[in-house]
Amino acid sequence: MNFSTRMAQALDARRAADGWRLRRLVTRNDTRTLEVDGKMYRHFSSNDYLGLSQHPAVRAGWHQGAPGAGASGHVTGYSRCHAELETALASWLGYSRALLFISGFAANQAVVHLLAQKHDRLIADRLAHASLLDAASHMPATLRRFLHNDAASLTQRLMMPCDGATLVITEGVFSMDGDSAPLAAIAAATRHAGGWLMVDDAHGIGVTGEQGRGSCWQQGIKPELLVITFGKAFGVSGAALLCDDATADYFLQFSRHLIYSTAMPPAQASALLAALHEVQRGDALRQRLRANIQRFRAGAAALPWKLMPSESAIQPLIVGENGTALALSQRLAQAGCWVSAIRPPTVPPGTARLRITLTAAHQAEDIDHLLEALHDAAG
What we know:
Blueprint: H1 3-16, E1 26-29, E2 33-36, E3 39-43, H2 56-62, H3 80-93, E4 97-101, H4 104-115, E5 121-125, H5 130-137, E6 142-146, H6 151-158, E7 166-171, H7 183-192, E8 196-200, H8 215-218, E9 225-229, E10 239-243, H9 245-254, H10 256-259, H11 266-280, H12 283-300, E11 306-307, E12 314-320, H13 322-334, E13 337-338, E14 341-342, E15 352-357, H14 364-378
Parallel strand pairs: 3-13, 5-6, 5-7, 7-8, 8-9
Antiparallel strand pairs: 1-2, 2-3, 4-10, 9-10, 11-12, 12-15, 14-15
């Protein structure tokens, strides 16, 4: 079979399964509202949980740095903006070092790619992000998966013999279900077995814990490897790995994702430093977000679709089949609400859903309008 035939068959299968993905041209996005094809919608598919992408200080911070780094951080791409951001992040989260990456996907891939060697084992939550599982599946280390958020299942996997090192991988808040990992129990099991713990807290950082320090801080643990991303509550993009000095030095010497990639633009680092300051003093934003979550969950309790037990900004409604989820998403769009339908392979077959995300930028009237549209669609 040649490449053209293989691609044609895969595309035909994707269309037949109602799994076809589209990119839509967005002409305006202020977190609360979205303009697509000249029509305005109330926006319920943004990960900008605190609304900081629109904050004047963050926008001003972007204009204070250069638009491009010009080289890898190992050549001439490491600027004062990068150094200040790394220092501030490490101090804020209680680590000795922070290393910046251009994206959360790149950071997760870098960790697994560098650490997982032959005879090692990776034990990942079954619902861990694709960036983690994809990297793990291509490494010589053994990949095992434990039942979602099940510390007992993890303990069983850890009891199996291993000739090398063990890395346990989980998330703080899971992106598709919106639920939180039992990090204290997972950390205890991992340490008892002599392994290292890696936590991807993309959807917890900035939203949970004191000053928005995230899921690990909230649950009183300090994993050996903490990945945080900046495309959600920080309202920008990029990621950082928090770790100790020796680990940071090891990554700087041997991580191909750092050595052979152009550094993030100084303008981005400057904007992120401004965003960090707003996250640290963002208690009012986090309280507004919590109120919006509570308002939505109270109003959605009587809907016929399964509402996942999530207290996070991610509020999934499980619809079931792909076509049904697409139809419901389109019905909501007709009512002026933009809500994305998430389908396999992103989620397991039979669990297509509306992934509703709430932000501090939403007003009570936005939540009520969405609930009214959902109840109309249910009727």
